Amino acid sequence: SNDELHRRIVAAKQTLGDRVVILGHFYQRDEVVQHADYIGDSFQLANAAKARTEAEAIVFCGVHFMAETADLLSGPEQAVILPNLAAGCSMADMADIDQVEEAWEALEALYGTEPDADGRVPVIPVTYMNSSAALKGFCGRHGGIVCTSSNAETVLRWAFERGQRVLFFPDQHLGRNTAKKLGVPLEHMPMWNPNRPLGGNEATDLEQAEVILWHGFCSVHKRFTVDQIDRARAQHPGVRVIVHPECPMAVVDAADEAGSTDYIQKAIAAAPDGTTFAIGTEINMVQRLAAQYPQHTIFCLDDVICPCSTMYRIHPGYLAWVLEGLVAGEVLNRITVSDDVAVPARLSLERMLAAKP
Ligand code: 13P
Ligand code: SF4
């Protein structure tokens, strides 16, 4: 039962003490989040993994790419554990390293490799955190960088200082929404289609491209619609609509604000009592915020319950299992990134951590 699992997790944690640290993403279910030593968005959790040098194990309650990132940034002796190895991310799976390498070759053939008069190279690759370590490594090897939803603007500026254009993957929506905010016109953001020669793009589109978007998307956030926002505004005059930047552009444009999970949480925490919020992000987080801030009215834009199915795979039963493993001296479900990938991947993450707004 849930009570039983709760009891087992608390007992194992108590036995382990400082030997373990549990990190939890905002999208995790309550029965998991309540055991986390640190809860945050993906940027904050990356920093937390980097800072926790004393614990021998980091149990990451989130998805696979986050655990990989924690392994890249944590100490070499620390084991990063993903309680359920099936907790992946469908968006991260939408960009595979071979397809990206192929796109890169085609772009090099088109743009060449020589910097312009200002020293800017033809293309800088930027990968969203929600991608495999192999793609972060690719960025590291090609002068590129990682971004999260909380620093995408800063990172794109960083990239435009060093490159004439950007190849952004895997999330087309975060790429488009961020580039638009920086003033890049839509007709200068062609989308790369890896299934067609030269990406299926007209050469002229690529000729004037400033940001080349990958075709990936988040299956949770693409569900939000402008209709839902219109309905929320009609039913709740004065409602504040905040959505995640993984939502489609029309939805971000129709909302009052867009920001990372941490942005959403902080906006709610700082609002005057009695504010009504319609939120466009994962349901577990929205429901938790609604319970945490009873002084406000908080609801999800989508009334069909839409959890992130892979985040949800971290069941408390798995958490109990890996913690009890540690108590018994066994490291279960360890996530490790091999050195050939880790060295360049770390480089692209360190560039992100050092990028100044
Ligand atoms: P953030 O936590 O960075 O806002 O990202 C949301 C998300 O979809 C993680 O998968
Ligand atoms: Fe991936 Fe979307 Fe789930 Fe985030 S919410 S882990 S992007 S599927």
TrEMBL record:
This is Quinolinate synthase. Pathway: Cofactor biosynthesis; NAD(+) biosynthesis; quinolinate from iminoaspartate: step 1/1. Keywords: 4Fe-4S, Cytoplasm, Iron, Iron-sulfur, Metal-binding, Pyridine nucleotide biosynthesis, Transferase. Its EC number is 2.5.1.72. It catalyses: iminosuccinate + dihydroxyacetone phosphate = quinolinate + phosphate + 2 H2O + H(+). Coiled coil: none annotated. Belongs to the quinolinate synthase family. Type 3 subfamily. Binds 1 [4Fe-4S] cluster per subunit. The chain holds residues 70 to 426 of 435 of the full protein. It is found in: Cytoplasm.
